Amino acid sequence: MTQGCKNAMEIWRELRDRGFAGTHRQVHRFVAEHRTRPTRRTARKWLVRPSSPAANTIALPSPQQLAWFLTQPVESSPPNATAAITRINQDPEAARFGALAQRFATLVGSCCVDGTPPADPAGELDFWLDAARLSNIPALKTFASGLERDRMAVRAAFTTSWSNGQAEGQISKLKMLKRTMYGRASFLLLRRRVLLKA
Question: What is the superkingdom listed in this entry's lineage (predicted)?
């Protein structure tokens, strides 16, 4: 292609003579992707399509990475996270979602992890729930209604310093042990494995 030949069949024949084992379709696809301008026989519907991707496009992170980026403080995020969040915030709905996710993560972190809780954590939670309901973002509305259904437990998590994390961890460990035995263990065998694992 650098020597000026744009015909995929000619390039394939030359490559085949040199030992290339692939098909002419593979070469045709490669040549079509790397053309800088359309050929004389290109159909009209393909002429409006840009021939090469923009050089300054930034690859979007995976959904898990994006969720992590949105819940972290902006000042501690890596440069690629800042670029991705800036790009995503160009959409008003995504910007609202990001702001609400950041606010909820900050509220949970200050109340439940190791921060200084706000003066009225229950009021802050109610304010966030109202904002999530009014956002017209289906995922946030569903999440807010789920928190609303379990309102007493969520309020207790935000206002007290107690946690059932240790018990939940032990339960998860027990479930994992049961899954490794495909749920067929008798109580005695399961008890023995739990005691040996501890």
Answer: Bacteria
User: Is this prediction's pTM over 0.85?
Assistant: no
Which sign, positive or negative, has the C-alpha torsion 131, 133, 137, 138? Answer: positive
* Collapsed DSSP state (helix, strand, coil) of residue 50: coil
Residue pair 111/155 in contact by the 8 Å Cβ criterion: no
- Other C-beta atoms closer than 10 Å to the C-beta of 127 total 13
Residue type, 161: S
User: Under a CB-based contact definition with an 8 Å cutoff, are residues 158 and 112 in contact?
Assistant: yes
Residues 45-81 have pLDDT tens digits of 555 555 555 545 667 788 888 888 888 877 777 877 8
Whether the Cβ atoms of residue 135 and residue 127 lie closer than 8 Å to each other:
no
Q: Determine the angle formed by the axes of helices 79-88 and 92-108, rounding to 10 degrees.
A: 130
Domain boundaries, the chain: 8-47, 63-159, 167-197
Which residue in the block uniquely carries the two structure tokens 């670029």? 83
Q: Which of 50, 88, 93 is nearest to 67 (CA)?
A: 88
CA distance 96 to 31: 42
